[in-house]
Amino acid sequence: MNFGEKLRDLRNEKKLTQPDLADAIGIEQSYLSKLENEKSLPSDNTLSRILEVFEIGIGELLNELDPRTKNQLRQLPQVADYLTREKSLMIQNRRRWLMISVALISIGVALIYAGRSHLFFPDHLYQYVSQGVVLQGEPKEIFEKSRVYIPDAVRDDNNETQKYLDAIKARVNEQYVLTSEFRGRIYNLQVEGGSRTYYVDRETQIDPWGSKFLVFIGVLLGMFGLAGIVMERKLSN
Predict the structure, then answer these.
(1) Which of 82, 25, 26, 88 is nearest to 59 (CA)?
(2) CA distance 203 to 179
(3) Are residue 138 and residue 156 in the same domain, yes or no?
(4) Whole-number Å distance between alpha carbons of 207 and 31
(5) How far apart are alpha carbons 27 and 222 in whole angstroms?
(6) What domain range includes position 19?
(7) For residues 176 and 185, what is the distance between their CA atoms, to the nearest angstrom?
(8) Which of 43, 75, 131, 152 is deepest in the core (most CB within 10 A)?
(9) 164 and 146, same structural domain?
C-alpha cells in the first residue's frame, strides 16, 4: 500500500470528504488530491497534522506502507527518526534472540552430557551383606573365615572345633544394605554389642529415569535453540 491509498482509506473510515479533510489539515484540496493520487509527498508539518486529525501514531501509519513508500517518506525527519529507531530495536531483538538461542543450545548440551555421564543420578546400585555382629576382640572376618580363626586350644579336638563352628553359625544374622553409594568392597559399621562388616554382595548397573529426563530436556532445549538461530537467519535475510 502506498501513502495515497493509506490516506484515502483513513479519510473514508472517518467518512470525510476531500474538502473536509483538507480543511481539518489546513491545506488546499488540490494538494490533498495530489497526496491521495501519489503525485506529491507530504511535508513534515503536513504529516504531523494528518496524524493529529486521524489520532494515530506514525508507526500505525507506516506499518501498512510498502518498502518503496517508506523509503520515499524517509526524507521527512520524523519518519527517518522512527525508521531508525525501529531498525535499531529490530537489531537488538535479533541479537537478544540469538543470545537466547545460543544459551538454550549450551544448556541443552550441558544437560545431555550430565544425563549421559550420570553426574546427578548414579547408574550403579550396590548390595552389601553382613553375616552378623562381630564381638569385641574378634576378627572382622569371623563369620566368613571362621575355620581360620579357630582357637588353638580347641583346634586339635574335633568335637570342640565343631562346637565352636556351630556357635559361630548360630550367631549368623544376615543384614543387607542397598545403596547407590560405593563404600568400598568392604566396610565396617559400629553397632550395639560390637560391629558389622559389610561386603559387596551384588553390583547392578541401571539407567536411572532422572538421567533420561535430563537428556530429554537437553535435546528439547537444543532443538529450540537451533530453531531460534534458523529463524533469526531468515529474519535477517
Answers:
(1) 82
(2) 10
(3) yes
(4) 78
(5) 58
(6) 3-72
(7) 14
(8) 131
(9) yes
Q: Is the pLDDT of residue 234 over 80?
A: no
Query: Which pLDDT value is given to residue 235?
Result: 67
DSSP secondary structure letter of residue 27: S
Is 50 contained in some domain?
yes
- Output the pTM of the full model: 0.60
CA 72 centroid distance within chain: 45
**Which domain CATH number covers 45?**
1.10.260.40
Task: Look up residue 188 and give its DSSP letter.
Answer: E
pLDDT (tens digit per residue) in 152-178: 888 889 999 999 999 999 999 999 999
Furthest-apart CA atoms within the chain: distance in Å: 134
Partner residues linked to 187 by β-bridges: 198
The pLDDT value given to residue 237: 61
User: Is the Cα dihedral 38, 44, 45, 50 positive or negative?
Assistant: positive
- Please give the C-alpha separations between residue 223 and each of 2, 51, 100, 220, 228, in angstroms, as whole numbers: 40, 44, 13, 5, 8
How big is the chain by its Cα radius of gyration, in Å? 43
Whether the Cβ atoms of residue 225 and residue 104 lie closer than 8 Å to each other: yes
Let me know how long the chain is.
237
32 and 102 co-located in one domain: no
